[in-house]
Amino acid sequence: MFNNHERRKFNQKSEHSIEKEWPFRLNFYDKSPWYEVTLEEFEKHALDRLRILAEIESSFARNRSWEELKTVTTRQFKDYLPLNSNSASTVDTQTERRNDHLGHFVLRLAFCRSEDLRRRFVKAETALFRVKYESDDARERELFLKSRDFQWNEVEPDERKQYSSELKALGKGSTVQQLEEWFEKEKFYKVRWTQVPDLVNKRRVLLIDGWAYVPSKEQLSIVLRAFEANLENALDRTARSIMRMDNDSRLTDVLNHMSRGFVAGVASEYSSGPATGDEITADMVDDLAKRHFPLCMRNLHECLMRDRHLKHFGRLQYGLFLKVLGLSIDEAVAFWRKSFSNLTDDKFNKEYKYNIRHSYGLEGKRANYPAKSCQQILLADKPGPSDCHGCPYRHFAPDNLQTSLLATYSSQGLTSADLAEVMRTVKEGHYHVACTRVFEITHAAAGVKKGEGIGEGESVTHPNQYAVKSIEIEKAQLGDAMVVE
Ligand code: SF4
């Protein structure tokens, strides 16, 4: 720990170095953070980055094209990790780049702990780097490339001449003249073939004596491979030194939480989930459930209607979901009283009413409990055989899930032909991606297309977000119908 004098000196030094520390928007993250951060910053910037990485993973799982992935990620950049080029004179680019730097290093700590996490982190980070690279200011990118040693050499004129016919074969052009023009303008780089195994594999380079001759249009491959190799080595080193940090429970709790979220394929969610903006009443719940709820809540609702009861974790998951959706405390008491129709008033008041009021912050600690996010439902309180809580995509046996999907959503357009795709995603462990696909299918009649998710390509990360979006779509449709009338 610093005393005040040391802290002042440290901060002055840090501020001074920050000014020059991030000359580029692109970063290979060679230097670990040397500046002080609060625990709040530590968590916030890592979570923001995790949201983007989780959406990149979802994009892979959803077989999105590169252009689609880029569009979704660029949009998320704006929300969670704005990063401007040097030409943006009115923006504090150094703070933006510091946030980027910090988030990356916190996630390195979270994801260095197993080989599977490291592999997934490298893949998602490399895609993130590529999105930044392709959207970077051309001049700034050029300077960035010059600032690093990628161990490539531009092919000298003599060599160009010597291998001109082979090099031209790498070009594109339907006529000899077009090919000649391309060759005149194109630069070629010479690197060890091990730096570009993907290009060698796709036969997009000329190979001579262990050297690969790479046209500049393929330069990105060299950069990405270098980024990957750099990060793989850094993660190995971090994994070896993490033991020293494992004593600090303040940090390990945050890191464990993040890596668990990534395992479930969903970024951490602390928010209570979006509300509809409208109040709902006890009498509306049954109808809303049938038209707008995700499978986890549909299942809870059906268990409740069938058994006239729900166990503790089921009541908690469903009760908080309904609260955030807009069910007031009075309506909640009315809803649960009506649903528990096998109980006497006395038993209901003594054993259940208190808990309902508690979840609204009216009893006990008086905390306003948020609704559970997908990550919490996927990972916490694993349901037993007679429980109804949890996420069906994760916790149902495959046969039961297929039967349940057809029984629940066939009236909304889901057919047995859709099951193969949904079940493949479930098998790969991308439960929220399967849920997102079901949202798209069941809202196709309202114009939702494959890949659009719950809006602008986003995947489902919260049951309330699913329900709210579904209600919004219906409202928009009704609005359109009224205009036509
Ligand atoms: Fe519910 Fe989330 Fe599972 Fe969908 S992915 S069923 S919203 S927990």
UniProtKB/TrEMBL annotation:
Keyword 4Fe-4S: yes
Cofactor note as given: Binds 1 [4Fe-4S] cluster.
Keywords linked to the UniProt accession: 4Fe-4S, DNA replication, DNA-binding, Iron, Iron-sulfur, Metal-binding, Primosome
Start and end residues of each DNA primase large subunit C-terminal domain: 287-466
Gene Ontology biological process terms in this record: DNA replication initiation; DNA replication, synthesis of primer
Cofactor: [4Fe-4S] cluster
GO terms for MF: 4 iron, 4 sulfur cluster binding; DNA binding; metal ion binding
Function: DNA primase is the polymerase that synthesizes small RNA primers for the Okazaki fragments made during discontinuous DNA replication.
Stored PANTHER family: DNA PRIMASE LARGE SUBUNIT
Family from the record: Belongs to the eukaryotic-type primase large subunit family.
Descriptive protein name: DNA primase large subunit
Species annotation: Rhizopogon vinicolor AM-OR11-026
Classification of source organism: Eukaryota, Fungi, Dikarya, Basidiomycota, Agaricomycotina
